[in-house]
Structures are given as structure tokens and as C-alpha cells.
Structures
1.
Amino acid sequence: MTKTVVTALAVIIVLTGSHVCRAQDASWKNGGSKYLYVTPTKKSPFHMPYDEALKCIDCHKWDGVDAYTSATMSLKKSVKGRLSQAAIRQAILDTLKGTGDYREMYVMATSFDNEPVATCIEFTLDPDTLILYASSEKQTEKLFHIAANPRVSLVYVKHRDDYRYFVNPVGVQIKGKAVQLKYGDSGFDEAARICLDSAMHHMPEEMKAKMSREAMLSAINKNQLITKVVPERIVITSGDFIRQGLHRKQIWEAAK
């Protein structure tokens, strides 16, 4: 009798659609559904450069690479069209230098309990380490996300007044781990100084007149947290790369 009831309930659940299978619940064995992949046919005249020894199937297949387009995956397999890690690093610095203080506006993606949020936030890049720092008021949504899940992704897109993003894009995608620093933690003082110094470059004089640098720093110590993002992988996209005969996307990876 018990078995019959359980079976009947299972049938009712299936028929009524009581269980909703979300995309993230689907099995990712062998890379998920086939519709996600390019079907190699004839090479496009706009195809990025690649080693001639490579076959279409070498790139247009699942090989465990996370969240990469098939075009970007080929960068890991082809020497042709790639810059050296040193050259990529310099291109990143040139793109993210801002007015010279390496402070820029980014979008940072965080996630809590499988629910994402994208936040516009200014970060200051340390050109020596490629680590990014941002100061934020306590008790904001992104900080709760990071406290629960330190995995983050940042995106920077260079604004174009002519909106010709398709032919001349400049953008940077950063994937890494965020560390939250509070007053008293090792590294907080230096991070707070980096954030405040770059912010003061952009403050109007009347704002500086209302509060001294020491008072501003005291307010950061008391009311803010520093988010330190340590990058693991940075992908830079540039139309200049294309014009040089290179792949439009270049990948920098942290040493392991």
C-alpha cells in the first residue's frame, strides 16, 4: 500500500509540474546540452588567428574549461595570435590606468544562495600586483554576498562617445577571490590609503575643505570595509589586437 501511494504521488508531481528544474540544476556531464556549442562547418572570414595544425573539433568541444566561449578556449591551445604574459599584463595596466591613479569604475558580480547581483563600484588597481581595492559602507548587499561567497567577477568597459563598440571594443574581465578587510586587520591600513589617495584625486576642492584627509581616513576606519580582489584570470578585449593580426581576446593568468 505504501509503495502504491508513493508511486502515485510521484506521478502527480510529474504531471502537475510541481518540481521546476532550473537551468543550474541540469546535469553538466560532458559539458551540458549540445545547443550551447558551435557546430563547426566552414571557417568564417572573421575567424581569429590560430595554429594551422588545430582542427575545428579541437576547440569547439567540451574540455572542462569554465565559462569560456569556444573562441576564447582556442587561446589556450593556439600559439598564433597570442601575446606574451608580460605584454598582456602591460596592456591591462594601460587600459585600467584611469587618469593615472589606476582608479576606474567596474561592474562586480557576486552571488549569494544562487542569486546574483551586479554592482557598479570603483576599484583602484595596484600596478605592481594587479590586486584591486575598493572601500564600501558596511551593511551593503555586495558585502553580505562576499562574506558568504568570496568568488567574484569584475568587468570594465571603456566608454566610447561614438558607441562603436562592435568594431573597436576595449574591455577587461577579471575573475578572482575577494577578501574583506576591516580596521585592525593586516593590510587594512595600506588598502585604505590606496583607496583614499585615489579618491582624493577626483574630489572637488569644496568637498576637501569640509573634511581633512585624517578625518576621512578615520571615517573609513570606523564605517567601511575594504574589498581586496586577488585576480586569478584576466581577459582583455581590444580592437587594437585585431588590427595587429592578433586574437581580440588575450588572457593573463596568475602564477600557480
2.
Amino acid sequence: MRARTHRFGRVAMLVLAALLLGGCALLPIGRQAKLRDPDPGPEVRPTAPPEYDILVAHDHQARGELDEALAAFERALEKDPDSAYIERKLAMGLIRAGRPAESLQHAERALQLDPDDEKTRILVGQLYRMQRNVAAAEKALLDESGVPISPEAGALLFQLYVESDRGERAIEVAKWLITVADDPIEGYAALAKAYEMTGQTDKADATLREALERDPENLQIYSQLARSARARGDVDGERAVYAEILKLHPHHHATLLALADVQLAENDQAGALQTLREIESNYPDDMRTVVRLGFLYYEAENFPESARRFETYLANEPGDDEVRFFLGIVQRRMGEDDAAIAVFSAIPEGSEHSAEAHTQLAVLYEEKGDYNRALEEIQVALAEKPTRPRELYAATLRAKAGDFDGAVAFLEGLLLKNPNDDELLFNLGVVFSEAHRTQEALDYMERAIEQNPNNASALNYVGYTWAEQGDNLDLAESYIVRALDLRPDDGFIIDSLGWVYYMRARPLFETGRSEEAKKYLDRALKELLRAQELTGGDPVVSEHLGDTYLLLDQKDRALQNYREAVEMTPREGEQPNLLQKLEALQREIE
């Protein structure tokens, strides 16, 4: 295209910037004149000149009264039917009213009346762009030699070519825009976008680098380079662009946020933590970053740092129940049960997280041995959001609170409707187990396995119980191995397997077959240490480790594990002899 004498004005630059960001160019709306109330009288004045009706229309537009404004413009047009200006104003009013087809009729009439009016031609071009009518838009926006009538028209054509997938035409217009601009940066950005849409990514990057030679610190161009790299899946290239920006603009907020997003997408947790900490340090009011750090530290199991961020965030956003809920979870993981109870209790009824908060409260009170309060909390959760797991949990708590018959009756009632439900059979087994009615518990668990051979929890219960009793050790091991195949990273099932090996070793030691026994103990120790890692520490696992070390005659390690088990609040029903073991071993060592 030949360069015309037009130079980029500020308006054209802004129009192109808006188009490059994916929006539509704003239609010209003219100045809005505020009608000064003349003499009292009716608004419709047939004898008044058309200028009066135009002022009335502007006044209605200023107040958002679009229908009244259109009526006023139409009255003005009746008085002066050959006014291109009034036709254009009416067309623009119809656009505002969402009536583009009618708008186009009046815009075309305005163009007939004044073919050289640039504003009208751009309006017509915009209306045809809305219809994706490229040929008609070009007729309005190009001169006789095929050159855009103005930079604003060129920017509009560029966007039309992009939207209609005419990449080569978009390239041609973008190059023209660079030649007519006082500040050609927007033209370079347009040209790079056109190269990208035609698959010429190398040329796109080269164009943006050329723009940076003209304006080395232009953040818009750097951002476009980063987006281009991201679109190609070039993570290293995107990171490199952010590094360039941060070298020019240290601690630049938006760039650091974009870098953190890339790092998180690439599972670079350490890098994301470092970047977000830099944002937190330089922009302490950015609560979004604070809460993101809280979640990242939670995933990294750095619970004190996670709690600190959540508390900071809640001090600024006290109504965010989701973050409050996670704060309670973090405090539970830190062993701060009283603090967790206070946090969960602060989540209001009706909140999206209220039912789960009450469920967490039920677990916390159960762990404290306050079964009645735990039952109250789970019943509140059930009233808000009834679910099958909560119903089953409520039955277990009812039994623990002393209403064994009520718990069994509730579950048996459900079982009558679904006699083959292995989950119900399993939970009945749990209720009988909690009541120390082991044989009946085993009966229900074996029925659950009959209905579902892949019920890992029932398999583990039966296998572990047999191991505790020293019975059926071959079958116990096979059940537990099957459960572990179903849940290979379940630390409690792994503990059961370790305990089977321990129980195999013990009678061998007692009969003097120490070499055979040691092989089983080595296997037991391997599994129990893995269980300790996966559970994050459990009193039963620690006691089992203590028993194993004691049988291996490693008394110091046995004592250490017994002490750890005691410090973790033992489960009385499962560990009735723990304190006795600890005290006896302490006396022996001392």
C-alpha cells in the first residue's frame, strides 16, 4: 500500500490498541450537549428548528433515555431530511439501542449525502464489520487506490481481516500502519499478531524485537512476546521474556504474577514460592498472593507458614469461609485441635463450607473422646447436607456415645433395603468392633468381602484382626496383600502387613528358630517404617515398631518408639498395654 499523508493521531492509536486486545472499536458518539430548559412548554415543538430536537436528543442520551433520544433525532430528520449529520447521529443512536440493521440504513443514507465524511465512512465500515461483510467494509474504508482513508480506518480493517482469517491482508494493513504512525509501536504489535495468525512465528518475534529497538522498555511489546511464547508452548522462552522485563523493571507486579503462573503450571513449586514471596514482600496488600502462598505452603506441608498466610488473609477478608475452612484443616495438621475447633466453629450456618466444618468438628470431638458432642456436630452436618458417608459416620458415633442398639438398628434398617450393600456390612462390622464384639464384627466383614471381594477396608480389618489373634496368618497375609494391591499407598494397610510379619516371627523366636524369625522381622521393619512415613506418624504404628525393635533386642529404639506412641495420644481400645510396655522397658534399661 502507498503511504498517505495521514499521521497517527492519539485517537487512532487508542482504537488499534483496543482492537489488538480483542475488543471492538468504540463508535463515535459525538458531543453530548446538556439541554438547558428554555421557556416552559412541550418537548415536541414542530415549529422549532431541527437543532432544537438534536439538543433534546443529546439530553435524553445523557440520561440513558435511548428511545426518547431516537424519537427526537427522528423529529429532527423529518425537519431536515437531507442532513447527513442527523442521519449519522440517528444511526449512532440506533447502535446504542441495539438495532444495528436499522442503523446501517441511516448510516448508508448519511454516506450518500456526504461521501467524503470520514466519520460516516468509519461508522459504515464498523457496521459492516459487525456483519462480517468484508467487501462492503472495504468499500467504505478504502480510497480509490485501495489505501485506508485514515489510520483509524486502517486499524478497523486490520481487525476485520484478523476476524475473517485474511492473514495476508492483515499483514499488508499492519505494515501500512507502521509507515503512517508518529509512534509505530501499535503497528508493530499488529504486524506481529498478523504474522502469528499465518504461522510465521519467527517473523512475529523479529517484528516485536524490532519494536523493542525503537522502544526498549515497552511493557506491551514484552507482554506480547511472552504471550507468543506461551501460545507456542515455549515455556523457557516465556520465562526468558519475564527475566528481561524484571531486569528492566525489578519487582514488576504483573510480570511476577505471570511468572508465578508459569512456574505453577510447570509444577515448579520452589520457584513459584520464591516468586510469590517476592510479590508478598513488595506488595503486602496483594491478598490474592498471600492466600496463594497459604495454599502452596499447605501442599508443601509447611503448615506454620500456611497458617500464617491464611490468618493474614482472613484479617483483611474475614468473610472468606473457604480460606477459614482450610485454616482449620492446617491447624488440625499441626495438632492445634483447640484452635481448629475455634476456626471451624466460626464458619456460619448456611455457608457453603458449613456442613464440612461441622463434620470436621465431629472428628475433632471424637478424637477427644467427647462422643456426644461429636454426634451433635455430625447431625448438624447431616441436616445441612445429608450424605451417605455422614449417615454411616453418625451411626458409628451413636454407638460410641453409648447407643449401640440404636446404631445397629439404624444400619440394619438400611441393610434391609439393600441386603447386598458391602459398605453397610462393613460399617456394621465397625460398630460391633467398637463394642469389642470381635467375632460378630468379623462375621459382618466377611459378609462384606463376599459381596465385594475388592472391599479393601474389610480385607484389611479381617487380616489385621486375625494377625492380632495369631490365627490364620497365611490367609491374613493374603487378605492384606489383596487390600494393598487395591490401595498401594495406604499406610494403615502397610502397617497391617508389617504386623503380620511380626506375628509370624514371634513364635519362631519362642521355638528357637531365630534365623527364620529375623527374616520376617526385617520384612516387618521395612513395612512399618514405610507405614510410619505414609501416615505421618500414628501411635499404633509407633507401638508396632517398638515391639519389633524389642524382639530384635534393639531396646533403645524400642523405647524411643514407645515414647513417641504415648506422646501421640494412644487409642485406648487398640493399645491397652502400651504404657505397661513403656514403663517395664524403662525400668529394664535404667
3.
Amino acid sequence: MRTPLSLRARALLLGAAAAALVVGAAGGRAQQQPASIDEAGWQGVLGVRTPVSTAQRYVVLLKPPSLAAQVRAAGGTASEKEMRSWSAKAIAQQEQFLARLAAVGARIAPEYRYTRVINGFSARLDPTSLALLDGDREVLGVYPVRIAYPAQVSEPGGDGGVLPTAVADLEIAGLDGSGVTVALLDTGVDPSHPYLRQRVLSGVDVIDPGSGGIAQPHPTVPGRPERHATELAGIIAGTDGPDGLHGIAPGASILPVRVGGWQPNAEGGYSVYSRTDQIIAGLEAAVDPNGDGDVHDAARIALIGMVEPYAAFVDGPLPRAIAGAADLDMLTIVPAGNDGRAGPGYGSIAGPGAAEAAVTVGAADGRLAAPTVRVLVRAGLRVLYEEDVPLGGAPSRTVTADVVLVDQRTASRGIAGLFPDGTSAVAGHAVLLPRAALSGDTVEEATSAGALSVLVDGPLPAGAFSLDVPPGVPVVGLATGVVAQIRALLAAGIPVTVSIGDVQVATRESGGSVAAFSSRGLAFDGSLKPDLAAPGVSVPTSEPGREDDGNVRFGTISGTSAAAAVTAGVAAVLAQGRPSLGARGLHGLLVGSAQRADLDPTASGAGLVDLRAAVQQEIYAEPSAVSFGVARPSAGSERVVRITNVSTRRLSVSIGNNAIAPKGVQVTFDPQHVRLRRGQSAEVVVRANTADLSAEAGAATGELVLRSGDSPDVHVPWAVAVPVDVDLVSRLALVRTGARVSDATPAALSFVAGAVTGSSDPQVRGVELLEIELWRGGTRIGLLARRRDVLPGRYTFGLTGRSPTGDRLRHGKYVIRVVAHPGDGTRQQSDKIEYAVR
């Protein structure tokens, strides 16, 4: 049973949490400097990525136009009759296509069908069907389905009295998002939570149709509901919370679209995740909630709370679907991902964060103060460890307890185990959790089972797990070496005791920064992402379910999905204030009004989201960021920026350049001044001269600054990519499985595609298009296989002794050539290996 925090603990932690929400706010004097925790400390805290099999699932894009393409071709508007007709035509074309493929031997059973934002379907494909589809005249491309995980950590709270009242400086008098619908593509939502009452519409469940988008319980472990969407919904539109707590847009409506949740994993259990094909199905539902083919009922804003780690591809089915949603006037907001810093050339942006039409959001950490505690670990009189460490929980008293181990298997099945006499196995002890089992659920289960404290293998950031988990139960991370000693001693039957002291508050030197876990750009094509940053550490919100005493639950969460939810709320308020603006106009205002605050563009895009500036802004730029791609020193690059006047008056706009990290790049523009009547647009040519560009890998960055009288400045960040030169195809090998290559005993061709370089800050390089060609005697016979959007890894293909047309090859020597197209404009790379057929 949870009891209130002491007044002292409340004051300490309320101050620390409130500071977390105001980037650049003033703070008190430091008593000490807390230990620095980088993105490694957030691993596990930000969710466990349990392996999941995609089981040969693919998304197939077709060339005939989608509804979005038809509307775009019609100038952006269409009648209900036209939309329904175009939707019906797309479905009919798909039926004809599937019938034609079935007649030539393809076995295709679509799991999801798409006609609105894209034209295509998803299905499990055997090798024969995959080959037939990939070479078909009506197929635009076949893409792998990836797994997407929630981009946050839950930090469940207790009685709610310790929570800040709102995310500071993101309120506008008279605007609360009323009349704006935000589609929340995530897990199910708990609509019974009073904080969300009357804000949640009847939703859509693309995983288990018929649930209405309601949060589902864990299939086998009681007390583990789907949390994520309830938390994000509270950030967006919560209202009437404790002590005045409310969301960014308390007047907005939430349309829950359940695209993720408890689903089977590769370990025989269940994990919370989504898939590419499910998210696209969610976008289809968000633009057409009643499914009648007419999208006039589309949500104004869509928030995708799930991310595909490191999948920064710009031209796959999900980025195309987000662009289609924009054509249907729905703005999509996505998290940047929670993988932290990366190499100097390309970053760690998660999919679909590379989508040009998406507003991709990084997480800002504005905490100026962080709670710490003194931790003493001993075995008898022997002191194993004594240090000040960041506090992940919220104790109101000191704790001394014997340590007990919980292994990953126990954690996955539920920690609240009982001895035969009915007593708790962890009550009265300090529970040591393995890093792989670390999550909000396991921490909460340990504390609910009576644990006096929770210890974690490895560093843990301050405030990682709650203001109240419950009161009096500290959560701290220990050095891995110390944990190894504890495990060895306990295994030998030697008791280990931990003592945790009172709370101290230390000043953080990095207050007002991008969070260590927040993913950085660039995307795989060299484009600048994220677009902006928003508060994403210890954001107060609702939690599903109720406490043992019946009280509703509140807590705080961290992650780029929390930052994206803040931005979705800002977008809803902006949409209410600017009802005539379309999706791309809202996109331009959100990004252009962000405030630089001395933040790195590859981590924060245009800067920190600023609702007041967005509402007051009179012009916007499209695109909202200028990406020149990979530098070519002998030749510059140029892009066109379109500036639009959305005010009620004539404006004179001047264009300037702020070089942030130019690396020798000279940016010019023509014209330098434009005059715009109300509603008028003008184009500006922006050129990057890269003749003096530094050869050092990284991104050259800056921003265009558009000024117009007393209107807030508009910031348009720009970037030039200088990637690390790596091998995108390597380590080819050919292994026979029999004396003769055949359908039954194929040869196995294996190789490494893509690359991961470095160690502390690795650079991930994907491959946009991978082709396997068959050659003989210097002549290309044909294409054996093609794969798109390939992440780094070792891949294996079977060679059966057949030609690209399926005919048996004549005996002799052949060459297999593997070609990698990087997708960023740099040279294609290839490698080859001899292949004998006998």
C-alpha cells in the first residue's frame, strides 16, 4: 500500500521534477556534482527490446495510385464521391493484381491492405512469391517489416500529489486544442482514467479488431497492462489532474489507434511492440476512422509512439505512408528514438523518424537539479562499495537491507513470487535486477511485493523511475564490477547488505541540454533529423489502472515519445489557432518557430519547440529544413525553399545565414529579400559552396534566419553530410550443402551488408538497395535477388543452380556480384565471388 511522501522528500523531488520540464529555467546552488550518466545509463530504463521474429513478413507497394496520390493530383481537394470512387478503384486493382499473381504460382494472403495513404499490402511471402512480386511490372517495391518499440520509460507514481502541474511555457490563453482530433498510434488507451475522461473517442484496434483501441492486459502476468498510450494521451490532452495537472491541449480529442501492444515474442512469451505493417494500417485508420473511403473525417494530427531502432531510411513504405497522410491533410509527429549519440557521419535516428513529411522530435533534458543518495554495500565488515549515485526512485528515509537476486526468467514471469507459507520472496530485502530485465513493470512489481529498495546492474540516471515508486523505496544503479562481486558472494552463501542514505539534491551542469538517450541525426540520405526537440525527461502524466487503495494513478515518463507527445499537444493547440492551415503549413510553423538555445542541430533540428512563437509566426518555410546531402567538394549543391505568408498583412522578409558548425561550407541565397502579400508564396534558391569543406567526418550545419518586422524569426536549419568511408559489402563466403547444387541442396551465399563503425559512438550505415547479380564470362546474366532498406548485418541467400528466369544453369564457372546502393548519393559498392555449377 502506498503512503504519502514526507514533506521534505516532496519538496526535494517536486523541485527536481519541475526543473526537468523547463529548459533553461533557473535553479539553486549545487551541494555536489552528480555522477554523469550517458545514454548507456538509460538502457533498459527506456524499455527492453525483446527479440521478435518478423517471419518473412513484407510490405508490397504497388504502382497504381493511392487515394492520397489521387487527391494530390487533383490539387489537394476532392469530393466525398470522388474519394470513395478512388478508394474502391484501388481495392479493385489490388484484387485483380492478386488474382493475376496467384495464376502464376504466387501464394499471397494479405494481412493488411492499404489504399488511402499508400497502395499496397503486407503479407508473409515464401521465396517463390517474393521473387515473382519483386520482378512484377505493377510492383513499386517489396520492403521488410520491422519491429517497433515504445520510445519511452514508464515511471509510475502514487497519489499524484507530488507532480508538477504542467509542462512549463507551453500554454496559450484561450487555446486548448478544442475541436482538434489527435490520432494516437500506439498501444491501447485506458479510457476510464479520470484524467482522460471525455477526451478519448471510440478507437480502432488493428491488432485485435473490435476492442475500440482500449489497453489490453498481459496475457499471462496479472498487473501488467499496456501503459504507453495512456501516458502519451495524458501528456497531450489530460485534464483536471491533481494540483492542477493538465496536458498540453486539454481540449483536444484523442482517437486511440492500437497498432502495438502485448504480442508474442521470439522467446515464447509476450512483449509490447508494433510492426511496420501495423503502423501503416494505423495511419490508414487515422485518415479514415469510419473506413468508408472518404477521408474528410481524418484526424488533424497523428502521433506515432513506436519506433524502429536505427531504421533511418527515407523512402520506405512507412515514410511514404506519412507523406500520403500529409497529402490527406494529416500531420504526423514521431519520436527520434532513444539510442543516443552515434558516429560523426550518420546518427541513430529510428524509423520512421527519417520521413521528410514527419515532424521528428528529440528529447530535451532541462533538469537543473538531480537527486542523489549515498550507497554503501558491504559483506560483513568488508566494504565493497561506497559512493554518491543518482537516485532513480524517491526515498523519504534511509534503508538498510540484505540483497536478494532476481534472475531474468523470474522477472519475465512476475517478481511477486511467494514462499510456500504465503510470504513474499522479496519482502524486506533489497532486490538486485539484471539489466536485461529492467523495466517500469519489473521495478513496480518488486516494490509492490515488499522490496525495501531496488538495485540495478549498471548506471541509472536520476529520476529514471518515478517520483513515488512507492514512497520510501529507492531505486539506484550499481557499477557492474560491484554487481559481479555481489553475485559471487551470494552464490557462495555470504550475505550482502546495502545501506542507502537520505536524499541530496545536486546541480546538473548540463541543464538545458538534449537528453543523453535522445537519438541524433543524420538520416541515411544525409538529411537533417530530428526536426526539433521538446521536454522529454520526467514529464508528468496519467498511468493506467488504480492503486491498491483505489486512487487513480499518475507518474512521470521519459523518452522521445514523451517529447513527441508534448509536440503533438502543441500541434493541436496550433491547429486550433490556425484552422485554415494544412498539414505542411503546421509542420512549417512548428519547426520554424523552434528556438535554437545553443543546441546542436543534429540533436535538436531547429531547436526547442515554442508554442507562443508558433502561434505568433506569420511566415513558414517549406521544406522546414534544408538538407544538401553528401558533400561533393568539386561541385556545390542547391535547394529551393518556398516561403509563405500566413498573416493578414503584406510582409517584407529578409533572409540571413547563421553558421553554427560550417566546416568550410559557404551558404548563399537568392533573392535576399522578398515581399509577400497575404497568402502569397515566393521561392528562394539556397546554394552550398563546398569547395573548402573540411574532410573530417561529420555534418556541417547552420540555419537560415527569416526576419519580418516584429514577427518572430523563422529558423530553417541546413546540413551538409560528410560520412565516414566504409565498406557496405564485405566478407563474402559460399558454402555448399551438398555435392551438387540443387533446389534440395543449395549453396549458401553469405556476406555482411551495411556497416557499424566505432565503439563508443558507433556510426550505423544502412543500404537502401541491395542486389545480387549473376555473371558469366564478363556478361551479366540477370538479377537473382533484390532487397530494400537493409540494416547492417550478415545475410544469407540460397543458390540453387538456377538462372534468374528459373532455368537450370549449364555446368561451368559463374560469378556472384553483390551490389550495395547506399541511398545518400555516394558511389555504389560491390564485391564478387566465384560460383561453380557442376
